[in-house]
Amino acid sequence: MKIKPVKGRPMLHWVGKRPIDTISNYPAQLIDIYNVENPEKEPTYDKFKNGPNLLFHGDNKEILSTLLVQGFRGKIDLIYIDPPFDSGADYVRKVALRGEQKNLEAEGHSVVEQTQYTDIWANDTYLQFMYERLILMRELLTDNGSIYVHCDWRMNSYLRLVLDEIFNKSNFKNEIIWCYRDIGSRTTPYFKRKHESLLVYSKSETWIHNVQRGKIAESTRKRYEEYFDENDQITYAALKESNPGVFAKLKGIPQDLNEIWLDARHGAQLTDWWTDISPLKHGFNESNGYPTQKPKALLKRIIKASSNKNSIVLDCFVGSGTTVAVAEKLGRRWIAADINKGAIQTTIKRLQALPETQRGIVHYRVNNYDASTHLERKDIVIKKYGVQSDRQEAFFDGTLDGTLVKIIDLTKPLTPLDIQTIKDELENRPEESRNITVFCYGINSSIQAELKEENRRRGVNKIFVRDIGSEGVTTFEPAEADVKFEKEGQNVTITIADYISPTILARMDIDRTIFDEQIDDFRAQIDCILIDTDYTGEHFTIAESDLPEKKTDFVEKEYTVSLPRPDARVAVKIIDMLGEETIITE
Known about the structure:
globular
């Protein structure tokens, strides 16, 4: 499928800049459904119109391409994105075990960590990343649609120029400043940075804009009190007659002087300076533990202003799910995506708790890409072996003892193709003299022997392989769950007798014996329980869920569910505090 060329004159150049001119369709794998019957194996616009909302796990470039191929071109009224800000920071979610916390004597701490996403980029890489995705988003917008790009001082100027090129600078509508106060006492050698920006562009000259109003100041009310009519309004005509001095100073006066200038009952039209939405007041009480979560009040204002009932709202960096939770409550259709499994799970849990979730949710994984598992495993290797990460390096994963490090896909043994890929990369680096350390999980003895012979002949770029499995790393074993099923008629009693996650043990660097001594209840590891009462093996349908509201609460140990028919099969999905999922069937 072809993509229309970008609209504006190129305004910014970077290494590797290239537009997208064609797109491909990537397969979508159906994973979970909630409150939906007969879900579609492939998401299409024709089925979406009267069907459930869509949640995707995977690279949003691939997801946006799939949406275009599947009929969503020109169908979306509003896009809000809160992408990484190129801030040079690793966002790490601190995940405490459930229940009353105790310091673990083995390491003196009681938390494990899961990287939500890495907000570290080479500048050129970041710009190309955003450029490609913004081009695809433009194609998805309706002719009267708009996009809000959330950013801060780091990338504001760069993104503004990229958006000018893609959407045309004449379609720039607003730079909204969302600012907030600081309660900390820490001093800085500059004025404290306490605002973020929303860059707003429309796709064409016309766009959906529903006027939003805020409470007028009491001093303003008193100043013009004598000019208000019986509806607590002042029109431009009334202002011109009663206060010509103020009228003469106004800019952009409409031709229809009967238009309302000031509305005391509903408030004054909002400006592009938002000071009334405080992260302290609105954000902290809503927190799901996600590092960049935004207040619901912020998204409510955006969605109400730039979409209508049943408009489609898209957020492809959905994070904690605030956009879709608010869209659901306001009666909008929505599509959401994120590359991080923790974001998807947080969003699903959040939506399940909403009484407004009427249309249901279908969760797909695009291109069968489970990025968070790979990143989590790679992160464990980096931390365990002390690899020094290099965020500017595109191919290798860092350095260790003077060697370049490459971490091979840890879900399979090392293959000759993996080695050849490294050799091909070195061919493009003739001046590179360092040796290579390859981490893998399993290796054929013949490959090891061949490398040993090659290293004997090589002067530089020797390749040394470390099999983490043979070195005693067991973090990639599946979780162990002891689940019992007792069937009586069409009722099944499910008992969760035990659960242990080798990944959690590895993150805490603690032996199983010590863990059992220090943690009184195995349920401290479990975040939530989901139950499918008619499991087919193709996808997981959430019929019952146990989502404790507080971190101090445990899931239940026992559940009794009713089967839809005598031969139905029950499945239990256990999601632990690191987001790992384990499915057990009767």
